[in-house]
UniProtKB/TrEMBL annotation:
SUPFAM superfamilies: FMN-linked oxidoreductases. This is Oxidored_FMN domain-containing protein. Residues 93-400 form the NADH:flavin oxidoreductase/NADH oxidase N-terminal domain. It comes from the Eukaryota. Pfam families: Oxidored_FMN. Residues 1-18 form the signal peptide. InterPro entries: Aldolase_TIM, NADH_flavin_oxidoreductase, OxRdtase_FMN_N. GO terms for molecular function: FMN binding; oxidoreductase activity. Keywords: Flavoprotein, Oxidoreductase, Signal.
Amino acid sequence: MLPTLVVFLSFFYPPSDSFKYSNDSTVTEIVRYDGRKIPFQNQQQIFHYVNISNPEVEVKVKCAHCNAERCRPLPFCYSIQYSDDEYPKKHGIPTENILNVYDKWGHGQYGMTLTANVLVDPTNLEAIGNANIFKEGDSSERRALFTQWAQKMKQDGSLAIGQLSHAGRQTPRYVNPTPWSASDIQLKTSDNQYGKPIALTTEQVKTEVIDRFVFAAKFSFECGFDGVELHGAHGYILSQFTSPTTNKRTDKYGGSLENRNRIILEIYDEIRKEIPSKEFLIGLKTNSVEFQSEGTTLEDAKEMCRAYEERGFDFVELSGGTAEKFLFNHERESTKKREAFFAEFAEQIRPVFKNTVVYLTGGFRTVGAMVDAIERNTTQGIGLGRPVTAEPDLPKKILNGEVRSAVKDEFNQNEMGKTIMASCSQIEQMGRKSLEGAGGNVMDQISDFSDGKLVEQFDGALLEFMKEVKEALIEGRIPKSIIVFN
Ligand SMILES: *[C@@H]1O[C@H](CO)[C@@H](O)[C@H](O)[C@H]1NC(C)=O
Ligand SMILES: *[C@@H]1O[C@H](CO)[C@@H](O)[C@H](O)[C@H]1NC(C)=O
Ligand SMILES: *[C@@H]1O[C@H](CO)[C@@H](O)[C@H](O)[C@H]1NC(C)=O
């Protein structure tokens, strides 16, 4: 049996904006990827830049508004651009580039295609440039573009799923130094890139989180999406509620496991009230485990998943980790052979699911490992991320029997930051032209990193990129946000 393939793209985003500085540090406008300029209204904080080849060494930029503390590097890739100047009506609307990207994936014979993070609160972004759905920004233009986005995803029969997120305390300082969270527990990182969050009141849990997810789900439904996936993993706000490390509440949303999980079940119920049709899928991305003391344990995750099954969630995508501790690599030989990073955890959770479909994402590269995971009943679908920026139609080639694995690139797989940057560059390449504009070739302009020489060139481009960014910041010019490669 060949697995259903699910595209999953949460860790990297198509490129978009860069920033202009009026003086040392204040962002005054965002320059779109296509050169158009947009005034930047949320100029709270600004940041230093980190050299990703050498994250210990900070690129020094004088910083006027962050108390000389180290702030946040620019995220290296953005999702969807800010657009034009009319805030908030045009804030975070899909662009032509993103539509072009999904035009390519829309011809890859995926079973289900997910948008990456679409944020439900424009002040609690995961990165500048995220796509947004929020009631204050509702407009016919936004609806038309999200509708087109769904259509691009569905072209060859894939389901289109909107991945809905709210970053909470994982909102970078420069977006919002006081984001929401379950409790006021700050995310501490060495570069101090996150501010101290404000604990939501019981009332605000409803108005600022639940209602916003429900609005975005209904909006997605009305734009033709086949479902939504609530992002309850990786340390975003829903996992800030479920994890005892970040939830110290004493109301009905804190304390027991049942209470910590309540917000997710309430969002489910409220969406189902608005959209009773079971044709519209409601899924959840959740952590199988958090790799830190006091974090969600495997046992907790299992209990929570039992509740999702009982409530009626259509699917659950298992992942793991938070921004404090990611484990997207193979620390153990046993998982290396099986390719899936979280297979062993998934297997232990698996028995609680009967009607809820289980997906597993992260690490799969060969058809053998994919089929093995399905045959072992570890998962009912395979999520693909980085491999499909190199080959947007990988599932099609697998299903046609043309290939037995993803293309093996020549990057050192332990250099995750670099492989993500490379994937971002490939997404930028995909976004340059529509499929028709590319003469029907989904591979149009995409760099083939199985060529070692090209990898060397990319290494060079990366160094050059870092240098340019540093110079641009120091000189107050507009730095680039991604490597436009070849
Ligand atoms: C930098 O820009 C900020 C905001 O526009 C302004 O308040 C500040 O005075 C400027 N500093 C200098 C040195 O121009
Ligand atoms: C897969 O696992 C689930 C949960 O334990 C079980 O209900 C189902 O029967 C299994 N399917 C197969 C084909 O073994
Ligand atoms: C980044 O760090 C690497 C490794 O130390 C160094 O070779 C490179 O010059 C640095 N780049 C910048 C822009 O500082």
